[in-house]
Amino acid sequence: MKIIFAINAGSSSLKISVYLAEDRNATPRQIANAQISGLTSQSTKLTYIRGNESIYKNHQVRAGSQDDAFDIILNSLVGDENLDEIGSKSDIAITCHRIVHGGKYESAQIITKDTYYHIQTLSDLAPLHNGAALGIVETCIRKLPDTTNIACFDTQFHMSLPPHVYTYPINQERAQKNGLRKYGFHGLSYSFITRSVAKFLQKDVSKLNIIALHLGSGASACAIKGGKSWDTSMGLTPLSGLPGATRSGSVDPSLVFHYASDVGKLSPTSTAKLHISKAEEILNKESGLSALAGTTDFAVIAGADRAEHPQSALAFDLFVDRVSAFIGSYYVSLEGRVDALVFAGGIGEKSSRFRSAVVSSTACLGFGISDSANDSISTEGSVVQDISSEDTRSKVLVCQTDEQIEMACMCASKNELWD
Ligand SMILES: Nc1ncnc2c1ncn2[C@@H]1O[C@H](COP(=O)(O)OP(=O)(O)O)[C@@H](O)[C@H]1O
Ligand SMILES: CC(=O)OP(=O)(O)O
Ligand SMILES: [Mg+2]
């Protein structure tokens, strides 16, 4: 029996789930889940569930960074006298970390000095993520000396992208030398979505074709063909593709040169560990929905009165337009053989208004939803919920994605951790 900590440092949230793993063949059982959300907004909130009991729901806390959030959650979990399975920090046998950029790693890696330094060299390619996640890895090495740290990569699921999709039309010698290609992210989520939707539709994973949308603070789309990633909207870094809470998504690459005279300089928040230019800072942290609507909270954007808040209406319409364009593109690249369109991530799971707008703008592809099913999605309900209308050509589903259980399963099945 082992206790597994699964840590998911997103760009606006920190989510930690705790599992008990009986042996390498059993699915780890969740015993607690804690998350701090709103790290890019003024109000950070803690939600903590032990077993089936809600201990805190949207409880205001002060956390300015992923590091602060980690300290709060670790203290809540280890300090909880009623969480019987954890007597002390040394009970935590395995800690898995979601590392957004894993370069060419094809499987989860036990974190040694070498893997740590390699992941650090990739930090410039995931400026909102790798550095923050490595900060938490360092804290775990210091505060949980008995745990084995494992890196689980967002990029792994996309290793199946075909060459004509992952190649950029640039000098190929330079591309290969510098690893300049489409990597794709949110892979732990897409891997979970693929397994869960195949089970829901009672289809063999290897025969499943879906268009999946992971729409959170970072947003991406993925065409999944025969259960494998076939195309995805993020690229070398998580900046390209769809706009995010603070990210521009794809823009004309020349825009950077027209923005301001000093965009090529290092930004003031650049450090010895992370070299981020002013241009990268603007496009990653000062753009996206927040630049248009003045908030990163999509519930506020979707709920705003269109006449009174035209900026929110613009942000909403622009996001619908960009998401719909990827659905159209992926529908074609899957040759119209699409079992389901799947919504996931904070926005995909919680905004019925957004799902409705996207499905109506892609109705020409045969997608249709039932308004009553769409309005009654419950985040406490089943993992996959069906919102399709009777006459839809492909199913339209909502999946409560879970990157933490994906990591816990990946790690629990590693033989070397049980020997
Ligand atoms: N009730 C809601 N309606 C619409 N959007 C929501 C709601 N609650 C949260 N969100 C959006 O979900 C996003 C967070 O999604 P999540 O996938 O948890 O983020 P992260 O990218 O940090 O992992 C926030 O940017 C917020 O705008
Ligand atoms: C890759 C990425 O953008 O992740 P998140 O949405 O969790 O910030
Ligand atoms: Mg996320």
TrEMBL record:
Any one GO BP annotation for this protein: acetyl-CoA biosynthetic process
GO molecular function: acetate kinase activity; ATP binding; magnesium ion binding
Entry keyword Ribonucleoprotein: no
Site (Transition state stabilizer): H186, R247
SUPFAM superfamilies recorded: Actin-like ATPase domain (SSF53067)
Originating organism: Bionectria ochroleuca (Gliocladium roseum)
Name of protein: Probable acetate kinase
Residues binding ATP: K15, H214, L215, G216, S217, G218
Phylogenetic lineage: Eukaryota, Fungi, Dikarya, Ascomycota, Pezizomycotina
Top-level EC class as recorded in UniProt: transferase
Amino acids binding substrate: R98
Keyword ATP-binding on entry: yes
Family to which the UniProt record says this protein belongs: Belongs to the acetokinase family.
Cofactor: Mg(2+)
Binding site for Mg(2+): N8, E403
Functional pathway: Metabolic intermediate biosynthesis; acetyl-CoA biosynthesis; acetyl-CoA from acetate: step 1/2
Catalytic-site annotation from UniProt: D154 (proton donor/acceptor)
